[in-house]
Amino acid sequence: MRAALVQVEQEGPVSEIARAVDADTGYSRSDLGNAQRFVALYGDRVRYCYEQSAWLVSNGKRWIRDRTGEVERLAKKSVVAMAHEAANMTPAERDDFLAFALSSQDRRRLDALIALARSEEGIAIETADLDRDPMLLNVLNGTVDLRTGTLRPHDPRDLITKLAPVAFDPTARRELWIKTIDRTMGNDQEVIGFLQRSIGYAATGDISEHAIFILYGKGRNGKSTFLNTILAILGDYATTIDASLLMSKAQDDHPTGLTDLEGRRFVPTAEAEDGRRFDEALVKKLTGGERIKARRMRQDFYEFMPSHKVFLAVNHKPRIKGTDEGIWSRIKLIPFNAFIPKEERIKDLDKQLAAEAPGILAWIVQGCVEWQRIGLAEPKSIEDATNSYRDEMDNIGDFLRDRCLVPEQSHLKEVAKVKASELYGAYVGWCKGTGTEPVASRAFGSEMERRGFELKKSNSQAWRLGLTLNQDVDPDPVAYEIP
């Protein structure tokens, strides 16, 4: 028999078990040999992820989970093709080999082939290997490198699973899109530029800006059209979430809601209810860049790195209880002040904008390149709107203005004081009277310190210095005495 048995060992400190290899084919006549033959033929088209317990197949544009038995079809093709390997064998060798090839078509051997192929080098991957490059955007006609704004051919080695269902064409028309944005934003080119950079940033998997974008307006102002258009263009890179996920609740929600964010980049929300308060701890977590813990229904917890940027469309601004930079540095309030009267509304605007999708995609990519050049570069109007929002939410500031006296002269500041417990009690009572929610005593104290009102202990009593309650103030400030 011409078929020889060749013993193969892996070099290194630990040798693998030697395996017999058919000298005519290079593969052992075994399930392992069949698995290696399969990988040699189709290894560039299949991957297996143990974390997901799933096969993935490449369709030429991206990797998708195998839900139609593609891996099994390829496995069957690989064993059927074994007959061609017998062409140069002697009759006796051919008969022996063909008998093995025929038995390889049995269900048991096919299952063994597929099971053994999972762990072959180059086939097994981790979830983290998928969509690893945050600056690649996969589109219909290739992959856009967002670092440069250039298009290159699809490459299975990128292990991309997502697709924006639009062709990239930097020269494509987008006149209606530009006209719509100009009308929506009152032709404010600084704000429009900020919007473009924000959406360009949102098209990446980068989360370095640690921001949440709030689009505020009373309705019929174009913010939903704007967000829905971007949502459709970014396809798999985008998803919507319910605004309630971001709002404070009496009890924690099931963490399954967070799983929708995994791997997404652009995440607009539906309208938030009037008067709801942000879950500030969650907003900080979702914009902070740390790993997020979540779990699917009836499954164990797992963690993922964030890539999402949330765009919250509201008619009423969410209440924000905190006064610290930890929350306010993340807020980007974008006013949508226009009102589009009925006679100016364009029929089937969404369909007409869809026809400009390649041009709008080019606008997004252009915004991304510009964001990398100068950052978000908030215009003063955005900063002013956000600061005004912060002032609206500052019930501590309102309390100080309404119930306290803060002397302007330095020598009077030194003698003005109030018991810390009385000050906080007055604040809580004021909040109840005004229908606002007080912050916790520790947060109140921290905010007093931040505003320059120091805490001093004297005779086992804590005093807040530099202010006093109105009812405790002598009408003549010169009459203050040092306690």
Write the layout of secondary structure elements.
Layout: E1 5-8, E2 19-22, H1 31-42, E3 46-49, E4 54-58, E5 63-65, H2 70-80, H3 91-103, H4 107-117, E6 124-125, E7 136-139, E8 142-145, E9 150-152, H5 175-184, H6 189-202, E10 212-216, H7 223-234, E11 266-269, H8 280-286, E12 292-294, E13 302-304, E14 309-314, H9 325-328, E15 331-335, H10 349-354, H11 357-374, H12 380-393, H13 395-403, E16 404-405, H14 410-413, E17 417-419, H15 420-434, H16 441-450, E18 455-458, E19 461-465, E20 468-469
Parallel strand pairs: 3-6, 10-14, 10-15, 11-14
Antiparallel strand pairs: 1-2, 3-4, 4-5, 7-8, 8-9, 12-13, 16-20, 17-19, 18-19
Helix pairs in contact: 1-2, 1-4, 2-4, 6-11, 7-11, 13-15
Keywords: ATP-binding, Helicase, Hydrolase, Nucleotide-binding
InterPro entries: DNA_primase/NTPase_C (IPR004968), Helicase_put_C_phage/plasmid (IPR006500), Helicase_SF3_DNA-vir (IPR014015), NrS-1_pol-like_helicase (IPR045455), ORF904-like_C (IPR051620), P-loop_NTPase (IPR027417), Phage/plasmid_primase_P4_C (IPR014818)
GO molecular function: ATP binding; helicase activity; hydrolase activity
